Amino acid sequence: MYDPVCASACGRTIQKFPLVCSTHGKGDHHGGGPMSTTPECRANDTSYLTTLAYCMKSKCAPSNIEAWRLEQWWWEKSTTDKSVHPVMDYEETLATVRKEPTRVPKKEDTLDFTGLITDASWKIETMAELYFEEQETLHARYGYRLRSKPYILYPFSIPGYHVRSLPWLIGNPPLVGQSIYIAIFFILNIVLTAGGYRSTQPNSWFPNRWQEIMAYVSCRTGVLAFAILPLLLLFSSRNNILLWCTNWSHSTFLLLHRWVGRAFALQVILHSIVELQLYIGMGSYKEELVKAYWAWGIVATMTTVLLVTVSVLWFRRISYEIFLILHIVLAIFCIVGSWYHVELLFYRKWGYELWLYAAIAVWAFDRILRVGRIAYTGLKQAHTTEVCPGIIRVDIPGVRWHVKPGLHAYLLFPTLSFRVWESHPFSVSPLQLRLPYQESDASSGGPNQKFGDAEKSANATVTVGQHSRKESIVGLRFYIRGATGLTSMLRPGLVLPCLVEGPYGNRSSVTILSSDRVVVIGGGIGITGLLAYLSSGHVNTKLYWGVKEKYAGLVADVEEQLGAGVEKEVRLGKRFVAEEVLNSEIEAGWKRIGVVVCGPPGLCDDVRAAVVRAGRAGKTEIELEVDAFSW
In CATH, what is the architecture of 167-373? Predict the structure, then answer.
């Protein structure tokens, strides 16, 4: 914009002074307004040109700016109009300055002499231009980023499938941006696995070139597998440092975890096959087969293959609880097998075990923080209420979190199942009730009044004794649809010991809430992931919520949490068409719209498709957040 800035700052500093050829603009005081200087005036004014030329020479000299760049700036920008050129070129003008100027022009001066521009005034202009250009560059980058989202970050790699599974539960394909990351990761693995081998023959270790190269490939694939392992565990962690740094969602990291796991498995399998062929070729296979390190290598390889097998989507859908137990047990055997494989073979000579230390450290860090989060919140009581058939509301008083959009927590109910380790993620909603509290006997309720009874009367007038008052109870609220496993065991009217692990989330809501308009689209129980957005205080928020008729009780229950001043459109027994919703908002003239969706997989992917189409049309900038626990 201002290249070279030394010349541009000279020009803008000098252009503040009127010239002999300047004229008065229109004004209210005797026709005299601000002085106006035309490009033609500057092009022909000797004092202006000599002052500018000397300033450029003195200020640009320390930067060693090439002469042709100064001439180019002079020819194109010195008059402030690219089509109007000065009567003399830069070098010619500079030659007319016979002696160094000493007079500094003042604010009220007409510049009819060759002036000296002080370093202070020039530096002020220089810094202003540099900082303005920096901000404009950032704006442009952000603009490119926004424009690239409908082409790179948001689109499907397979149209219509991301949260929605491919047919026959083959899996959830990544988005285009995720696919690029995965492709780069696999290409990097191929390059690192295949390149850089050199052979030297004759060799005291290997009788021929083939065995020598195979030995190198075996070592390379083993080391790469070990190097991937810490990353593999990190991507699966709830307490993921990369999640905090990148602001990617936990769902994204779990998707990448599965693909990185496949790369890890390929390296392990390749390592095992090459080792097998190498020892068969060397004639020592039978000798190695009976050794302990070989047996533990088989354990690590087989558990890796089983890990990939049981992690397919159809198995996770059959029983997530069984999958999770198998996943953890097999992962432990894989790490233990890997440890003993290198320990019994190398006895910690070459540092291979350091990769395993890193992997164990990542796992331990996550587990310690999980326990710490639970311990910080402490043991609480969960109160269950049926709001409609199939949906249980769980209220947990006494948990004081700053609830913001995008937060979720894991709930553990130690007395509900023998699987005390079992926990599930749920969207967090704030709970704030005004419950009756008594210091003496009262005419309504008693000192042992139950939470559930008080809640039912929270919006009613309660008459209590002379010393009664209202007490605020804050906490967390969850809406849970009974499915399989732990959630199927929840019954209304229970008071259960509960452990809360959290809060977890990211900062994606910041970009959504900075939009001119926030459009919140929900389907069924998906409203739970949207309540915090609706109560965020954004002045232009609208909810589109389609819900089955049998869940009418849920609509009534969440009504008070929808936020004051929020526009609401709720349909019982009918879904919204995502494209129609988005088109109506765009036609309203909003410049930037933040779209949040939470609901069934089909709804989430339909909204994504509509956002991609609208974003590519280019009329409106659209930010998208899909809050779907498709883990």
Answer: Up-down Bundle (1.20)
Identity of the amino acid at 433: L
Is 424 in contact with 528 (CB distance < 8 Å)? no
CB atoms within 10 A of CB 617: 12
Produce one character per residue of 603-615: b if its CB has 16 or more CB atoms within 10 Å, e if not.
bbbbbbbbbbebb
> Rounded CA gap, 394 and 458, in Å?
16
Options 3.20.20.70, 2.30.30.110, 2.60.40.10, 3.40.50.80; CATH of 508-626: 3.40.50.80
Tell me if the bond preceding 18 is cis, omega within 30° of 0.
no
The tens digit of pLDDT for each residue in 230-250 reads 999 999 999 999 988 887 889
Of residues 390 and 482, the one with the higher pLDDT is: 390
Buried b (16+ CB within 10 A) or exposed e, 307-339: bbeebebeebeeebeebbebbeebbebbbebbb
- Quickly list DSSP for 325-385: HHHHHHHHHHHHHHHHHHHHHHTTSSSTHHHHHHHHHHHHHHHHHHHHHHHHH-EEEEEEE
Residue 50 φ/ψ region, left for φ over 0, alpha for ψ in the -120 to 50 degree band, beta for the rest: alpha
pLDDT tens readout for residues 55-82: 999 999 888 889 999 999 999 999 999 9
- What is the per-residue pLDDT for 485? 67
Q: How many helices (H) and strands (E) does the chain have?
A: 21, 14
Specify the pLDDT at position 431.
67
The one-letter code for the residue type at 45 is D
Percentage of residues of the chain with pLDDT beyond 90: 61
Name the pLDDT band for 436 (thresholds 50, 70, 90): very low
CA–CA distance, 625 with 595 (Å, rounded to integer): 6
Sign of CA dihedral 199, 205, 206, 207: positive
Residue type, 99: K
Q: Pick one of 2.40.128, 2.40.30, 2.40.160, 3.30.160 as the CATH number of 379-504.
A: 2.40.30
pLDDT band at 457 (very low <50, low <70, confident <90, very high): very low
Angle, alpha carbons 117-122-123 (nearest 5°)? 145
Round to whole Å and give the CA distance between 438 and 518.
43
User: In angstroms, rounded to a whole number, what is the distance separating the alpha carbons of residues 544 and 572?
Assistant: 11
| Spatial distance between the Cα atoms of 233 and 190, rounded to a whole number of angstroms | 21
User: 550: which residues sit within 8 A by CB, 6+ positions away?
Assistant: 388, 389, 390
List, in sequence order, every residue forming a beta bridge with 268; answer none if it has no partner.
none
Tell me if 51 sits within 8 A of 111, measured CB to CB: yes
For the four alpha carbons of 146, 150, 156 and 158, in that order, the dihedral sign comes to negative
- Average pLDDT for residues 546-575, to the nearest whole number? 86
Token digits for 453? 């009874």
What Å distances lie between residue 253 and 63, 78, 450, 502, 604, CA to CA?
47, 54, 42, 18, 18
Host H or E run for residue 292: helix 292-310
As a dihedral over the C-alpha atoms of residue 141, residue 147, residue 152, residue 154, rounded to 10 degrees, the angle is: 120
Q: How far is CA 448 from CA 352, 454, 496, 553, in A?
A: 62, 10, 17, 28
Determine the longest span between alpha carbons in the chain, in angstroms.
110
